[in-house]
Design a protein that fits this description.
Layout: H1 7-14, E1 32-34, E2 37-39, E3 46-52, E4 55-60, E5 63-67, H2 71-78, E6 83-87, E7 90-93, E8 97-104, E9 107-112, E10 117-121, H3 122-132
Antiparallel strand pairs: 1-2, 3-4, 3-7, 4-5, 6-7, 8-9, 9-10
């Protein structure tokens, strides 16, 4: 014998069912001006950025280029997209962190995609782990 129907069962049966289509999220891009060119890479392709005086060198998966923009300006633009400044002269994309390895007492190395290793102090390692959701 079937269980008696409730009011919620009736509402669920007669409400029009919406067909939701899954729209993939747009991959974020950022404009980087370099000389006469402007690059528009997907932010997920940017692995890390290194300061070089008044310039910043941007390393992508498979390419790199230099822009005339201060690292602090890039940090403000990219912070909301998962980028983190781990040194005075280095910003990394948190999506590309592969490993955090202990190098020596109080010094750790952040290993990025492609085997890039950047040494950071303990305090930065702790902050980085909290951003990555490590326990």
């Amino acid at each position: 014998m079937a269980a008696p129907r409730t009011a919620l069962d009736n509402v669920a049966e007669f409400t029009p069912h919406r067909r939701e289509t899954a729209i993939p999220p747009a991959r974020a891009r950022c404009a980087f001006r370099s000389g006469e060119s402007t690059f528009y890479p997907h932010l997920s392709e940017v692995i890390w950025i290194q300061a070089r005086r008044n310039y910043s060198h941007i390393y992508l998966s498979g390419a790199d280029f230099t822009v005339r923009e201060l690292l602090s300006s890039l940090q403000q633009r990219l912070q909301q997209h998962g980028f983190f400044r781990i040194q005075r002269s280095t910003i990394i994309n948190l999506e590309h962190v592969v490993e955090i390895r202990r190098e020596s007492r109080g010094r750790y190395a952040v290993i990025l995609t492609g085997g890039i290793s950047i040494v950071v102090p303990y305090a930065v390692k702790e902050r980085l782990e909290s951003l990555l959701g490590a326990e």
